[in-house]
Amino acid sequence: MPHVIVKAWPGKTEQQKQALADRIAADVMEVLGYGEDAVSVAFEEVSPGDWAAKVYQADIQQGPGRLYKKPGYTM
Predict the structure, then answer these.
(1) Which pairs from 7-13 meet CB under 8 Å and 24+ separation?
(2) Is this structure's pTM higher than 0.90?
(3) Which pLDDT tens digit goes with each residue over 16-75?
(4) Mind telling me the catalytic residues?
(5) Which among 6, 1, 11, 4 has a CA at the least distance from the CA of 47?
(6) For 3-61, CATH number?
C-alpha cells in the first residue's frame, strides 16, 4: 500500500496539488502494479525557513538508502 508524501513550500493551489497527486498516483500504479485503492498521496507544506531542518537535513542528508532522486541537475 504505497503512501507518498510530497513536501513543498506553501503557495501551490489546490488544483496544482491535486494534479500532482493524480500524476504521482498514476505512475505508482503503473510502475509498481498497484490498483487505485492501494495508493495514497499527501501534500505537506513546509515554510522556506523550516526547509533546511525539517526536510533537507532530516530527509535528504540523513536518508542514505532511502533517497532515489537527489536534488540538483542530473542527466
Answers:
(1) 7/44, 7/45, 7/46, 7/54, 7/55, 7/59, 8/43, 8/44, 8/45, 8/46, 9/45, 9/46, 9/47, 9/48, 9/51, 10/45, 10/46, 10/47, 12/43
(2) no
(3) 999 999 999 999 999 999 999 999 999 999 999 999 999 999 999 886 788 888 888 655
(4) 2
(5) 11
(6) 3.30.429.10
Q: Where are the domains of the chain?
A: 3-61
Query: Tens digits of per-residue pLDDT, 49-62?
Result: 999 999 999 999 88
| CB-CB contact of 31 with 68 (8 Å) | no
Q: Write out the H or E segment, with its range, that includes residue 40.
A: strand 40-45
